[in-house]
């Protein structure tokens, strides 16, 4: 079993959802993660706040990347899967993919400490 | 009450206090001495009371006698140590006065709980020691609870005590920084003890109920102590109250299990349900959400018999969250059942097919339930697979009834 990270890229040019919509999205998201956890393939992960700070060379600190780029990372989870195929299979039902412009990035975690 | 019934009752409530206080005084490495003095006190009581009749205050009598026995032991020990090792004469811990104040009795029992619930020994040994030292159970009763022999239990407890001695276990509260972690082990042991009673295959109904009540009593002691009264402790107590509320309703006169759907709601214990609610409220402080919070939330909704969408949506989300904190096959199956109730059977069947639990008869029971009304042929086929995999006669009977009804 390897560990993979699923990064949720959210297209913020599409506008923010209404509270009712958001409630539905959250349920879909939790049902999806719950399904992965029920297969004992969930490792960890969390949502991220919409605000943030970005640090750049020369001691430059700005209030988040939002003015400059169209998408933001909404959150991530890490999962257990035997290979990329399985990881992609688990990722493809992510309800965020119902939203135009959003994407889920699947990356294998290689880590610096040896693990088998 | 006649002394024949009184002594076993007193043994249940006072033995653990004597052992805890004495053991704290002597140090954990002398736990057998503490147990011997406590047992010996009860032996003296049964002989003395049979001859002279009951003392006016039996508990005070026990404490007085135990104190004297401890003092004699310490003085003998002290003389012995003095002769062979005079240099320890000024050791400060040689006080011969045993502190049997209510505060020290209470603290000692809680501290003993921390001493015994140590991850260095297997969880069944933790439960065994808890039952022996903190619940005053006899070795035979513990053997009955674990469906094993007295010899096995004796060996298990002996090895566990050896291990704790090696680790130089102390009878004291863990420091503030350690508390959360140590408390987690204590709570796990209490919950296992409760489950041992609630789900065990033992036919011994009275004993099973007693295990549950003891688990609740130990948890109550933690809740009543300022130092250990944490949200997750209240959540565990709440959870056990909710479960225990169905104790009477879930078996018929012959001791056979009555499934949740067929239970008479009037036999649910309303007092325990409201107690569960009270402790769940008290658990809702701080910022951590333990597995006990989530399980108490599920247990709360299970005390609501009506099949509302609100109920199943809440249960589903609690399971979604619980599985992320701690996976277990049974939680995965229950989550899938809740998914069927909240989102429909089609979605639940798809989710169930992805579960890798094909050795588990409950898995095929679930699939049978999910296919019922959608594809009855498949439903029966799955119930039959469940029947083939079921290990106990009681489970096979339940499944056969389900097949006959479909």
From TrEMBL, chain A:
Gene3D superfamilies: Dimeric alpha+beta barrel (3.30.70.1060). Residues 50-108 form the YCII-related domain. Pfam families: YCII. SUPFAM superfamilies: Dimeric alpha+beta barrel. Belongs to the YciI family. PANTHER family: BLL7171 PROTEIN, BLL7171 PROTEIN-RELATED. This is YCII-related domain-containing protein.
UniProtKB/TrEMBL annotation, chain B:
It comes from the Bacteria. GO terms for molecular function: DNA-binding transcription factor activity. GO terms for biological process: DNA-templated transcription initiation. Residues 182-284 form the DUF6596 domain. Residues 14-76 form the RNA polymerase sigma-70 region domain. NCBIfam families: sigma70-ECF. PANTHER family: BLL6612 PROTEIN, BLL6612 PROTEIN-RELATED. This is RNA polymerase sigma-70 factor (ECF subfamily).
């Amino acid at each position: 079993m390897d560990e993979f990270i699923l990064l949720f890229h959210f297209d913020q040019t599409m506008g923010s959802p209404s509270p009712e919509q958001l409630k539905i999205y959250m349920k879909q998201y939790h049902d999806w993660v719950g399904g992965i956890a029920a297969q004992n393939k969930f490792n960890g992960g969390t949502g991220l706040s919409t605000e943030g700070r970005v640090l750049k060379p020369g001691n430059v600190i700005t209030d988040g990347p939002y003015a400059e780029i169209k998408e933001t990372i909404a959150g991530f989870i890490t999962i257990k899967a035997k290979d990329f195929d399985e990881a992609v299979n688990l990722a493809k039902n992510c309800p965020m993919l119902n939203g135009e412009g959003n994407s889920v990035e699947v990356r294998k975690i290689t880590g610096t400490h040896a693990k088998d | 009450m006649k002394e024949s019934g009184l002594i076993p009752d007193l043994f249940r409530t006072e033995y653990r206090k004597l052992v805890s206080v004495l053991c704290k005084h002597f140090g954990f490495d002398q736990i057998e001495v503490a147990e011997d003095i406590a047992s010996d006190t009860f032996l003296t009581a049964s002989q003395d009371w049979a001859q002279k009749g009951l003392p006016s205050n039996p508990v005070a009598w026990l404490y007085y006698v135990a104190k004297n026995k401890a003092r004699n032991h310490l003085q003998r020990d002290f003389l012995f140590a003095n002769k062979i090792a005079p240099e320890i004469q000024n050791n400060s811990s040689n006080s011969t006065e045993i502190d049997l104040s209510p505060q020290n009795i209470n603290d000692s029992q809680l501290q003993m709980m921390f001493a015994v619930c140590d991850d260095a020994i297997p969880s069944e040994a933790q439960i065994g020691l808890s039952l022996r030292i903190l619940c005053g159970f006899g070795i035979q009763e513990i053997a009955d609870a674990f469906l094993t022999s007295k010899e096995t239990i004796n060996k298990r407890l002996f090895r566990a005590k050896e291990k704790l001695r090696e680790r130089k276990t102390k009878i004291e509260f863990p420091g503030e920084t350690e508390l959360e972690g140590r408390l987690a082990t204590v709570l796990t042991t209490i919950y296992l003890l409760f489950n041992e009673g609630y789900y065990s295959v033992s036919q011994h109904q009275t004993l099973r109920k007693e295990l549950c009540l003891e688990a609740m009593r130990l948890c109550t002691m933690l809740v009543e102590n300022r130092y250990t009264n944490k949200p997750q402790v209240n959540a565990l107590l709440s959870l056990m109250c909710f479960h225990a509320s169905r104790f009477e309703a879930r078996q018929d006169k012959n001791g056979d299990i009555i499934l949740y759907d067929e239970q008479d709601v009037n036999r649910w214990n309303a007092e325990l349900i409201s107690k569960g609610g009270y402790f769940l409220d008290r658990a809702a402080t701080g910022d951590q959400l333990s597995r006990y919070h989530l399980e108490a939330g599920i247990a709360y909704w299970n005390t609501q018999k009506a099949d509302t969408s609100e109920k199943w949506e809440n249960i589903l989300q609690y399971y979604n969250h619980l599985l992320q904190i701690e996976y277990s096959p049974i939680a995965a199956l229950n989550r899938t059942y809740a998914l069927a109730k909240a989102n429909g059977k089609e979605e639940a069947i798809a989710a169930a097919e992805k579960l890798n639990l094909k050795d588990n008869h409950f898995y095929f029971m679930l699939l049978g339930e999910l296919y019922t009304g959608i594809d009855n042929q498949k439903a029966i086929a799955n119930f039959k697979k469940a029947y083939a995999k079921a290990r106990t006669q009681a489970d096979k009977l339940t499944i056969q009834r389900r097949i006959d009804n479909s």
